[in-house]
Every structure is written in C-alpha cells, then in structure tokens.
Amino acid sequence: xxNRRHFIGTLLSSSGLVFAGGMAVQGAHAAPQPVFAVPxxxxxAFLPTGKLRASINLGNPIxxxxxxxxxPVGVSVDLAQAFATLLGAELELVVVQxxxxxxxxxxxxxxxxxxxxxxxxxxxxxxxxxxxxxxxGFYLVRNDSPITSNAQVDVLQNxxxxxxxxxxxxxxxxxxxxxxxLRSATSPTVVATFLRDGAEVAAGVKQQLQADAAKHRGLxxxxxxxxxxxxxxxxPKSRGQDAADFLAAFxxxxxxxxxxxxxxxxxxxxxxxxxxxxxxxx
Length: 282
Fold this sequence. Notes:
2 domains, about 280 residues, nine-stranded mixed beta sheet, about 30% helix
C-alpha cells in the first residue's frame, strides 16, 4: 500500500499545483508536464486509456456549465484539468446533463473520475474524497402556498419535484415519509416540471431555484435549507485504495492552497463555501 501521508505531504509542498489566476486550467486540454513523479501504478489506475477521462455534469451550474464557445467551464472543469496536470496526462471531458448519468458513467468506467454529491448509495461503487465545496439544498413553493416551513413539506397531499438521480432525490427518497416525489429529467428542469404538473414543492440547489424564481413570477424559497450537499471527487472503487487515497490527497491540496476558493470566485459562484479540511470537526 502507498503511504497516504507521504502523498499528502508531497502534494502540499508542490507549488506547481498553484495555478495563478486559473490560467493553467483555461486552455486546451493537452498533456502537461507532471509537477512531481507520480508512481506508475497510480498513473495506470487513473489512465487506462492514456487520457484522464473526467465526467462533467452540466446539470449543476455550480459545478460546470457551457461557456460562450459551448465548451464546459466551471469549478469541476478546473479541478479536472489540475488533476490531469498532476498526472501529466491529456484531459478528456465526458459531458453529461444529470448527476445520475455522471454516476452511471463512472461506475461503468466510461470515465476515470467524477464530481458528485456524497451519498451512501453512490458510495457502494465509488470512492469519494472529502468534500471540496458545500452546497445548500432548498425548497421552492408558490407565493400563495400555505407552506411556510420545511416541517410542512412532508404531508400526504404534497408532491415534491426533484431532479432524477440528484443528491436531493437520494436524500428525500430516504427521509420523506408522506409526501410524494416527482422526478424531473434533470435538476435544471425541476421548476419547469413543478409549474407544468402543478406540484406543491420543488427541491434543488439554492442558486438554481433563486434563478428560476427570478424568471417566473409568484415563486418563493422557504427560509431554511433542508440539507447541505457535500460535493466531492470520486473514482471507481475498482481502481483500488491507493488511487482513492491519491485523489483524496489532491482534493485536500486544492482546498488548502486556495485553488477551490479562487475557482469559485473566477466563475462567479456565490452562496457556496469551501469545505473544511478532511477530519476537521464540524
């Protein structure tokens, strides 16, 4: 087994992983020079095709979205490019429109890494790092709805719309006892489905719901979040514990160096926080 502390220490001391102004992650995805000698076994675990295939979910605009030229941009893209740089590999983006599709792609090993909300069900086949950002989940209702608090959502007559396979879907499937879940094809279409079907509640990322509420009159968010989504990087468990430890060390480096915070600022992402270091008390 590889020494995880050794890799964390090496990554933390590798100044080459600090990308000034994000310039190292903005250009073409050509193979860069690695910042230190990555063990061949680690490169083999992440690069079975010779490239780093990263699953990028455009269904969560906090993580990634299509840029002006149509190519994905965002925090997850920046992290994927930084990890490819560390491995000395060319980056190949595997673009999907929903979290569930991203999970499927990594589990089927059509991608080598992905960016996911941490969830026990997903964790059966995917080894997660500690989270790199925390995202808040909120409920949205119509202005004339009698619902004013989260405690009023889980009643028999309420239908709650979620993005199929999203973190909210998985969480609410486990926790709601009386309300009925309706599943929209993707997270960005949740409010459209909510309006079309006349549902009582929509659930999703706070920023996405706020944007939709600004576009459609007569909608409001409830005052309190119903969950915090921990967004992490993940690798198929079939790639081995050494690969999982290496990816976890990389994520800790990206948080500690300020890279994640800078990426959030660079992509104008508000209302999202950099996650605490792994093992820190909550």
